[in-house]
Design goal:
The protein is of the alpha/beta class. It is built from ten helices and six strands. Helices cover 47% and strands 12% of the residues. The protein starts with 6 loop residues before the first strand and ends with a helix.
Length: 208
C-alpha cells in the first residue's frame, strides 16, 4: 500500500473523545451486574491501557476474559451516547483533510465500540484500527504510512516513536505535559484546539 503524502493518526479515548462519563457508567453497571466492587471514579483516571489491565484490579485473573466480554457487550447501550467529543476534535480532523491528508484512529479500545463512538459523534476518519496499545500501535501506523501520531498517554508516545512517526501529545488525559515530554513527545499541546495552528506551522516548515 503506497502511503499518501500526509497521514496523521489519532488516539481515541481522552484525545478525540471524553470517554470518562461513559466508561464510568459502564463500570458501575458491570459492578451492579456482577456484585464485584469497582471504583469507577478511580478507573477513569487511568484510561489508555487495554481493558484487561484495569479489570484485573477488580476481578480474579481467571475471570477477566469473561468480564471483558461482558463489559464490551454492555458498552454500546451505556457508554457511547454518554461520551462527548473533546474540544477541537472535529476541527483537528478537518484540518488534516483541508491539508489534503488522510486521518486514522488507532486505539486500544475494542474496535467495534470505537467505531460506534466515532459514528455517534459524526467523526469520520479514513481508517479505524482498534485493540492496539503502546508499541503495538506502530503496526497500524506503519501499515498506513502515518507520519504523525496524536495521543494523550505516554503509551501513545511510545507507539509513535516505535513507528518512526512524530509524536504529538495533548495534555487532556491522565498524563501531564511534563510526563509526556519526559516520555519523548516531540510536541505537547494543551488540547486539540491548538492542533490546526500547529499543523499549519508543521507543513510550512516541511515545505521550507
Amino acid at each position: 500500500m503506497a502511503p499518501m503524502a500526509l497521514t496523521i493518526g489519532f488516539d481515541l479515548d481522552m484525545t478525540l473523545i471524553d470517554s470518562r462519563p461513559g466508561i464510568r457508567a459502564c463500570y458501575l453497571a458491570l459492578s451492579e451486574r456482577t456484585g464485584a466492587y469497582i471504583d469507577a471514579d478511580l478507573a477513569v483516571t487511568r484510561l489508555g491501557p487495554p481493558l484487561a489491565e484495569e479489570l484485573v484490579n477488580w476481578f480474579p485473573a481467571e475471570q477477566v476474559p469473561a468480564m471483558a466480554d461482558l463489559y464490551r457487550e454492555m458498552y454500546p447501550s451505556i457508554a457511547v451516547a454518554a461520551s462527548p467529543a473533546m474540544a477541537g476534535a472535529r476541527e483537528a480532523m478537518d484540518a488534516v483533510r483541508a491539508a489534503g491528508g488522510r486521518t486514522m484512529v488507532v486505539t486500544a479500545k475494542y474496535e467495534p465500540n470505537a467505531k460506534l463512538h466515532l459514528a455517534h459523534l459524526g467523526i469520520e476518519p479514513d481508517v479505524v484500527v482498534g485493540d492496539l496499545w503502546a508499541e503495538r500501535k506502530a503496526q497500524a501506523l506503519r501499515e498506513y504510512g502515518a507520519s504523525v501520531y496524536v495521543g494523550d498517554h505516554t503509551g501513545d508516545v511510545r507507539g509513535a516513536r516505535t513507528a518512526g512517526a512524530l509524536s504529538v501529545a495533548v495534555a487532556t488525559g491522565p498524563c501531564p505535559a511534563d510526563e509526556l515530554r519526559a516520555a519523548g513527545a516531540d510536541v505537547v499541546l494543551d488540547d486539540l484546539a491548538a492542533f490546526p495552528a500547529w499543523l499549519a506551522g508543521y507543513r510550512d516548515a516541511a515545505r521550507a
